[in-house]
Amino acid sequence: MSGTGFPRGISLTGRLTILVSLLALLNAASPLRGQPTIAPSGASASAATQPRPAATAPATPGTSGADAASLRREGTARIEKAVKALIAEAASLDDLKQANAVIHFSRPHPALADIKGDLALQVLERMAQPITENAFRDTFIRWHLLHVVLQVDRANRRATGAPLLRLVRMMPGPLNLTAQRESYYEPEEIWQKWHALVGGGGPSPPQIVIGYPPFQRIIGAPESYKHLPADAASNYAKAVETWKVQHAKNLELAKQYEGKFKMVTVPGARTFNQRLSFVNYMVRQYRGELIYALIRSGDPEVAKLMMREIDRLARDKSGVAFDLLAYVYLAAFEGSLNLYDQGTLNEMSETLEGTARATDEYVSYGGATRNFAQYSFHLIYMLKDGGGFIEAEQKPKIDGNRFRPKGGFQ
Asked: Rounded to 10 degrees, what is the CA torsion of 62, 67, 68, 72?
């Protein structure tokens, strides 16, 4: 052996040939070569270890065109199976005769337990197709399916933008269903006579409103007497005594109707009303989550269209605009607006400010009186000032031209 480790008598050319061969073998066997190519079904093992040309983009491991089509068909079949289960369950939602049916109002639904975010785009395709043509049931089904879409990985969120926008344009309106009467009395005319005698309370203590809007206060007795005529307290006491005497007489008269009417309970009505309440909430959550998912897509054009949709709803004095904007705030606080450059955020802010200026008034929604301009105020300037959504350091511009809604802020 020579000092080089090669047998004596081998030429320099022969040694170089041996070295090149050894390096090729080591390179083929090394686990550090990068991501290996998995051979498609039926391919030889040797073909799998052949290096790809440098100019070719890496393919998805283990998938050829045929494999991808097969996986898509398999995913479609799994989604359809889940949708059929959801349709069957949804059929019990508005059926009073199925009050004991099991309805899932939490997510993930058992039928969707094995369907993950990798099928989000196929789930979106199915959501955009007709399901039952019953808005009540379809909302329930799409609410469950949307949970899968929200699990999509970051790399595929951009692709969800266009299909999500189609669903936004299909957003359900208010459900045209009314609560069922859970119970009633019969004969009703007898019960009404009885109730008229025993129902109702005595006179309420005097109250007074002091101050000016929006700083008004309601003051009750005995503090209210300081702001009322001197005989207010005595007049109230007399009214209470008069009521007590009359009420005692009424109770005696009511005895003639006792036992002559009965309460009838409607089977399944309470369960139906509970389901109606849940699905009404689902409608609001579903619409908001569509907006939330749109923002997470990171598509600037889709985000601008979303703001225009909120503008349309707000100008129509639809309370839905409040729900949608709530989910824009949610996405903002989560940091999803990091996906957009400052130019896009500025355009979103300008659209929202234009909406706020045009809708600076109070509307009734969800049992409350609300002002869209007040609700959008902080987001307008969070967007305009960067608000921590972009990494570039920005200094807010404070000036006297800032939009300020009437009546303060929410």
From this structure: -130
Give domain limits for the chain.
66-175, 183-265, 298-410
Nearest one of 82, 81, 101 to 91, comparing CA atoms: 101
pLDDT of residue 272: 85
Q: Kindly report the CA angle at 40 between 38 and 44, in degrees rounded to 5?
A: 85
Q: Is the pTM of this model over 0.70?
A: no
DSSP structure class, residue 256: G
Q: Which residue has the tokens 């595929």?
A: 156
Two structure tokens written together for 115: 């369907």
For residue 109, give every residue at least 6 positions away whose Cβ sits within 8 Å of its Cβ, in sequence order, or none.
82, 85, 86, 144, 147
Q: For residues 277 and 366, is the Cβ–Cβ distance under 8 A? A: no
Retrieve residue 168's tokens: 């936004």
* Low pLDDT (below 70) residues in the chain: 1-64, 96, 214, 366, 387-410
Q: Distance between CA atoms of 370 and 162, rounded to whole angstroms?
A: 32
